[in-house]
Amino acid sequence: MENPTRKPLITLLTLTLTLIALNTYNPHASSALLGEEYRTGWSFPNLSIEDPITKPQFIEPGDTVELWVRIVNTGHSRASKVEAHIEHEKSEDSKNIIFMRSRSSLGVIDQGGYGIAYFRLKISPDAPSSIYKIRVVATCENMFKEKSEFSQNIEIPVRGTARFSISLLDRKPLTPGESRTLRFKITNTGTGTAQYLELKFGGDRSTTSPGASLTLTQQSVATSIPTKPTSQATPSMYPTATSTGSLPLSAPTPSYPPTPTVAPRGLTTLPMPTQTYITTLGAPAVYLGSLRPGESAVAYFRVHVDRNTPSGAFSVPLTIKYEEEVEQVWGPLSVTEIENNLTYRRDTTTYKQIVKEVSFTDYIGLLVVGKPDINIANVLTSPTTIRPGDNLVEITMMVENSGEGEARNVETYLLLEYPFEASQTRSDRAYVGLLKPGESRNIVFKVDVDEKAEKKTYTIPLVVTYKEEDGSAKEFRTGIELSLRGRPDFKIVKSWSEPLKLVQGQEDAKLYVTIKNIGSEQAESVELRVLRRSGQPFDFSKRSDFVGTLDPGEEATAILEFDVDKNAGVKTHILNISIRAVGDREEGDDNVYTYEDKIRLTIEKAPSRLEKLSTQSTAKMVVPLILLVVIVVILLVKIGSKRRGTT
Predict the structure, then answer these.
(1) Last residue within a domain, chosen from 158, 193, 221
(2) Assign residue 349 a region: left if phi > 0, alpha if psi is -120 to 50, beta otherwise?
(3) Mean of the per-residue pLDDT values of the chain
(4) Residue 433 and residue 466 in contact, taking contact as beta carbons nearer than 8 Å
(5) Residue ranges of the alpha helices (H) in 510-564?
(6) What is the DSSP string of 353-389?
(7) How confident is the model at residue 220, as a pLDDT?
(8) Is 506 exposed, middle or buried (0-12, 13-18, 19+ CB in 10 A)?
(9) HEC states along 574-633?
(10) Could you report the per-residue pLDDT of 396-423, keeping only the tens digit for each?
(11) Which of 38, 498, 579, 644 has the most CB within a 10 Å radius?
(12) Residue 275: per-residue pLDDT
């Protein structure tokens, strides 16, 4: 008996063998034989392109990006000759992306399995912040050698980072005790836009610390924007291979980048400030608004430098606060979701701006140059007591710099006026050179004092010239007080001889010399002496005379005795007179003072013998005549008296 199911089975087996044969020699014939509806529902794979994993996870302009894209076969048959590529011409914003590897071969993906396509691209350094879309196309063949194509736009979020350079526009160094307005130029050198930008002087603590090795130049301080630290994602979400799919040997193993560090790249940790030296006057923060890439703004801060600030370079913290925006993101996502897990993004129909607040502190160098403070101290003289007529008086003093800055090319000189003058050439000048803070130098001047100087305290102007560290020339003036003590001084008031007329051969003559103390101090042990001089026709039996003590304004007369040589020249002779005295010991003046002056003595010719006899005879005759005249005058007077009496 014939089996009723045998005929259908034979028919099905025959059909199967026929399909295999047709598929071997003509795949399209098998498709035509089965019908379109049967082929679509049973024989075609379906490739689903999912969101990528990127390395680095946080993409910035200029980065080289690796992409791993999972392609899942959700159809009902095996997909063979699976390939994936990026269509450049159909990718949005392709001008900002350089495709370094845009094709990936995945081989065979079984039903329900998946493969991972690997791509590599580079983001342009000038690319603005945005969500960039690239078109990924996956192709495959079904069991009938028919090709299918699937495409999907995937999103590459690029967050352009705002980076800043800060420069000081004021090159002039600060000085202790100074208040000044400083200008800071802040430039956005990055690719992201900084909104609601605020610059704060002094950071969170308005203090600075000395000792940082910074110089005051118009500098550009490059900084990096800190990236929010995130936990590392689990790479098992995209395994490297499965039983139904394999990863090509040419593609790297997909993994997430290491967790970024908290400290921004490019920033150097400086010591914590210890003392307030530079502070702000007024608001410590300045609002600058929005800065796009390449834009700049200037912030003004009024600062004060403490007067005790030492010279040197100071590291001043400047805190920058702003909000950074990624333009429009496809999907209702939060910042945390974007940064922590890119794989959970799903397409929706809403847009949302992503704004992140960023704050970091940078440092800029401020140079504080202390001003020198020149002082004069320890003025000493040699001799200690200066009196009129003193020569080579040494004036020693100390020039010190009690300021905080260097004084360079320090020179000093005295402005001498009567009764002072320089003892030697340039003895009224002294060169000091460099005076560092706290240093001092001793300098010496040599002056002469006029003999006629008045007893009083004189002020001699002293000029000090120097240059500050910035090269500016400065001048400092002060006065040096010198007290001139009194001293005796003499002059010859008058002199005469006895006899008044001196002749050749005159004997036992006397010379009277009256002197006066015209000084401002009492003179003790005053003595007058005639100085011996060869060729003079005088023989002094008493050459000197002790006068004693003379108060200021008092006079005294010294008497000298001498003979005139008989051969003395008939003329006026000059005698050198020396007056010697001791200062007022009660005033501490033990000095011996010597003065010289001159007097004149005129010698006339001695009379001859005949002139002497004539003179003597005349004298003898003159006496009787004088007596006779006197008697006659007396008699006449008496006679006249008697006549007046009788009448």
Answers:
(1) 158
(2) alpha
(3) 77
(4) no
(5) none
(6) EEEEEEEEEEEEEEEE-PPP-EEEEEEEEESSSB-TT
(7) 30
(8) buried
(9) EEEEEEEEECCHHHCCCCEEEEEEEEEEEEECCCCHHHHHHHHHHHHHHHHHHHHHHHHH
(10) 999 999 888 889 999 999 999 999 999 9
(11) 579
(12) 58
d(CA 225, CA 215): 25
Q: At what angle do helices 27-34 and 6-25 cross, to 10 degrees?
A: 140
Q: Is the peptide bond before 264 cis (omega within 30 degrees of 0)?
A: no
pLDDT in tens, 529-551: 999 888 889 999 999 999 999 99
**Closest to 588 measured CA to CA, from 483, 491, 459:** 483
Distance, in Å, from the CA atom of 440 to the CA atom of 464, rounded to the nearest integer, reads 14
Which pLDDT value is given to residue 369? 84
- For residues 351 and 395, membership in a common domain is answered with no
Percent of the chain with pLDDT over 70: 73
CATH code: domain of residue 584: 2.60.40.1530
Domain boundary among 351, 368, 385: 368
Half-sphere exposure of 158 (CA within 13 A, CB side): 27
List, in order, residues 6 or more apart from 477 with CB less than 8 Å away. 461, 462, 463, 464
Q: Provide the domain count of the chain.
A: 5
Q: Look at residue 589 in the predicted model and tell me its pLDDT.
A: 85
pLDDT at 269: 34
As a whole number of angstroms, the distance between CA 483 and CA 388 comes to 10
Q: Are residues 364 and 378 in the same domain?
A: no
Token pair, residue 525, equals: 């042990």
**Site of tokens 């008939």:** 570
- The pair phi, psi for residue 404, each rounded to 5°, is -105, -5
Q: Please, are residues 169 and 218 in contact by the beta-carbon 8 Å criterion?
A: yes
Q: How far apart are CA 53 and CA 446, in angstroms?
A: 90
Sign of CA dihedral 199, 205, 210, 211: negative
Q: Which domain holds residue 569?
A: 490-604
Give dist(CA 227, CA 258) in Å, integer.
Answer: 13
Using the CB atoms, write b or e for 313-348: b if 16+ within 10 Å. Answer: bbbbbbbbbbbbbbeebbbebeeeebbebbeebeee
pLDDT value for 548 = 93
Can you give the pLDDT at residue 14? 59
Within a domain: 634: no
pTM of the model: 0.49
- In Å, what is the CA distance from 473 to each residue of 264, 483, 542, 597? 45, 33, 68, 52
Judge whether 146 lies within some domain.
Answer: yes
CB under 8 Å to 246, separation ≥6 — which residues? 107, 115
Q: Check the CA dihedral 40-42-44-50 and report its sign.
A: positive
Q: Around Cβ 211, how many Cβ atoms within 10 Å?
A: 13
pLDDT at 24: 47
pLDDT less than 70: residues of the chain: 1-43, 89-94, 203-275, 325-355, 608-623, 643-647
